[in-house]
Fold:
Amino acid sequence: MDDAQTRDDMERLRLTRDGLVWPEPDLAGGGVPAFLGQVTSSASSIGVGMFLLVRPTAVLGAEVEGGPGIFTAAGTTTVPVCLVGPEAASPGDFLVCRFIDNRWVAERTNISGGGGGSGGIGTLPTCFCTAIPATLTMTSASSTCNYGMFQTCTLQYGAVPAGYATLGLGANAFISLQSFPDVLADGALFQYMLTCSFNQFSLTRLYISSPYGSPYRDAVLYSWFVGSYGNTCTPFHLDNGSPYPGSDSTCSVTIDG
Structure:
């Protein structure tokens, strides 16, 4: 991992944690304070014109053209935000929140079609599931299982970041919006990628920079077979899978659309 990039990202996280990051007027809509937040409220609590809870999120990654932005939770505190619409948000969505009339507010406009976003679909070549929701929620039963290999996150269908171009992943893929440190690779950050071949879905990890290679695609970490009990295309639900042979068999990961 690039040492300068790592120091820069860690400094940003420290400043955000300590409340020392102030909005730049030219970048925050004419001086209105703003931040990026991930929706943590349950679907039943979300509605246009109602308050929901978001967790402030830091945007990390090298600031170079084609480099991927990496979303990382900035602490555990949640903030009440009024959703003004015109569309409803979903758990795991990222919203730009602005401070207006002493209240935090956020807009949400759905994006239709196959390019990603709430309400869209993702398509994977050779996959038996032909219309997969563009936004998927991956849930890990344990964040410490197998040295923290499986974390809860949001998988989003969209264009593959240019930083992964040499891996031959194709034009679009399901990649996690969040990144996580690999404790067995000197803290190198990785993102998850969900793939599909016929009726088998597989989970792997992607690294922009790591001791294994830069970039690097990991082996298959977890697999599900559509047709097995608990795994369906419509509604999209992967509940009955298994980690790779030789790993911690108690690890449990589900994916829902």
User: Anything to note?
Assistant: Confidence is low (pLDDT under 50) at residues 20-29, 111-118. The radius of gyration is 19 Å. The longest helix spans residues 3-17.
